[in-house]
Design a protein that fits this description.
Strand 12 and strand 13 form a beta hairpin. By secondary structure, the protein is α/β, with parallel strands linked by helices. The termini are far apart. 33% of the residues lie in helices and 25% in strands. The chain contains ten helices and 17 strands. It folds into two domains: 255 residues, TIM Barrel; 68 residues, no CATH class. The longest helix is centred in the C-terminal third of the chain and has 19 residues. An eleven-stranded mixed sheet has the order 1-2-11-10-9-8-7-6-3-4-5.
Amino acid sequence: MRLKGNDFLGYWFGDLPRGCKLCFAGLKSVLFITGLCNVKCFYCPISPTRKLRDLTFINDVEVRNVKDILTEVVASLSKGVGITGGEPLEVVDRVVELVKVLKDVFGGDFHIHLYTNGVKLNEVVMERLVNAGLDEIRIHVISDNSFNALRICLNYPVDVVIENPVIPNDVEGLKKIIEYADGLGVKYVNLNELEVSELNFDELILRGFKISGDGRSVIGSRETALEVLRWVMDSGIKTSVHFCPAIYKDRHQYLMRMSRRAIATKRVFEEVSNGIVKWLEVLGDEVANSYLQDLVTKVGDKYLTHTKLGRKFRKAKVVEALPLTPRKVLNESPLGRE
């Protein structure tokens, strides 16, 4: 049996959890529920502006209320949410209530998965999460508490996943985790390429790790993960194992989500291309003197229209933006002419 996948999606042996399948299609929103955490992992890649702060974001948009979360899910055409942090169980009441609301609004088939290190997970907490509607739980194995959490989770009707970053050369450590997972009956293990961020850069360098040329990941993490995958193929392990590369988030996950959001929120004068929206901004005096003024939309003090009408306006510029609400302008350029 061969490995499935490619350099952008990663490689895997066996099947994938539903959360990953939806993510591949750009159908998952990321709900960063809190920056609070009860452990200190040296490789934590969270932004310093979020680390150990009780802030909530949905797809990198800061949340003021539940309405913000629901609005972003609709705008992104998402069919599920991944709840992450920090450590989500630091605010378990908030998690439970949001799972209930999301299921109530979007229905039982709306898929929700949760990341946790398992330190604060017990039967009472798990019962609450499952009763609220949680579909999948992912355990970052860092201690015996994490293994105990795995055993608890396997008694409930949810998909149980181990998800750990790959420390370079830690082949034997990962083998032990996978063998233990297989013995317990855990269906899935996700291995993430060790990411580099502003927060963990110094910690990684101090420990002797080297950074890849694109600055995204630690050299050796990918090779270690692929070595483990080849071992899984030959060992008779029944647990499915997936390697997720650091490049995936930028080159695939983010692009797919932005593309769907662009389609869902496209304004009449916008053109959509590769997750970017663009339009033509025209000076007001040109609009007033044009027979095409009914095709121009006034937004605030600006006059906007589709780029297809560029030949009819001389005082105009093309604006490119991310399809966020409000739009995040990336580039403005004078209208090119032959």
